[in-house]
Amino acid sequence: MTAPDCRVSDYMQVFCSWKSASKSIADCIKIQRNSSKVSLDDVVDFERCIQLFANDSSGFAPCTINFKLENNWMITKIAIASEAKIFELYGSGEEYIGTHHAEYIDTIEDMEVFLTEMDVALANECTLKLAKTKNRNCMWVYGIYISVAELNPSPTKPGLDLNKVEERLKTSSQPLTDKAFKCKEFLKMYNSNLPSISHTKVPDPILILKMLEGEFLSSLLSQSDSSNGTSPFPLSSLLSKDSHHTASSERRNSHSSAQESGLCSENEFAMAQTELKYYLDKKMMMLENKLTAMINCKLKSVEEKYSSKVDKILDLLEKMNCVPE
């Protein structure tokens, strides 16, 4: 029997494949917002310690812990103090991300303490596999520390609210001119034929004015009446009419139109650029930590071999009574 899903907070759920006799896996988790540095005291708490046991039906499969957050929350860092020596990190689609070797801290009453800290590149779901433990069927977890960040949704420009326009016109004491009436009807048809995804975008005022100046509105309304208002917005057909008359004006205003339309997506582009930079920085940091761990492991192995050879030489010298003073 596996442990059920546990809600750690309003925006996080956690699932553990191993079970505990007294506590839930959520009891040993500490959440901090936008934390950059983590110390051992932040992770280890004896009140949050939990002993996990493997399920007999799983054939003593390694313990896995799954973290899942709401869409607007992201995991940036995970630190775990436990008896596990090696951790494997997987993404939301169970894709392999990387392996982390824990740092040995101490042994207390025959219980080993290892600490690992890993950076996660803005993931709202990930899974940790505790790959190597002292015992195959049980393990102590002394604390889990998770740093999270809330992503603000990108701002969107409101669309043109024609209802408010109608209200303003009704309260106004001045009658509509013929050109103003045509402009209002044009905007109604423009909004009604836009795809739903584009309703948050404001129509280009320069394009509207140029079409009105070229007397395109009359042909638009006549086409709409002939088809009982069911035809889609004939933007391409309107632009093809009297193209020679509008070509020069479109060229004169192409630069200003591009600038105005570019401003609409400036915030979205800046946010995407920031998230990409953050993602690349995290990936480089993970790679650097991985290389550092590999180098330290190699150096430790070389030192152990060197010490072993020196000990053998000293033993031989002692046996030969040739040890220098």
Total beta strand runs: 13
The CA-CA distance between the termini, in Å, is 66 Å
Low-confidence parts? 196-201, 227-248
* CATH fold-level name of the largest domain: Jelly Rolls
Mean pLDDT: 73
Shape: elongated
Question: Which percent range describes the beta-strand content?
Answer: 25-35%
InterPro entries: PAAT-like
TL;DR of this structure?
InterPro entries: PAAT-like. With 325 residues, the protein is an alpha+beta fold.
What can you tell me about this protein's structure?
With 325 residues, the chain is an alpha+beta fold. The protein has three domains: 145 residues, Jelly Rolls (Sandwich); 100 residues, no CATH class; 39 residues. The protein has eight helices and 13 strands. Helix 3 crosses helix 5. The relative contact order is 0.11. InterPro entries: PAAT-like (IPR028043). Pfam families: PAAT-like.
Q: Which features characterize this protein?
A:
about 325 residues, about 40% helix, 13 strands, alpha+beta, Jelly Rolls, 8 helices, single chain, six-stranded antiparallel sheet, seven-stranded mixed sheet, 3 domains
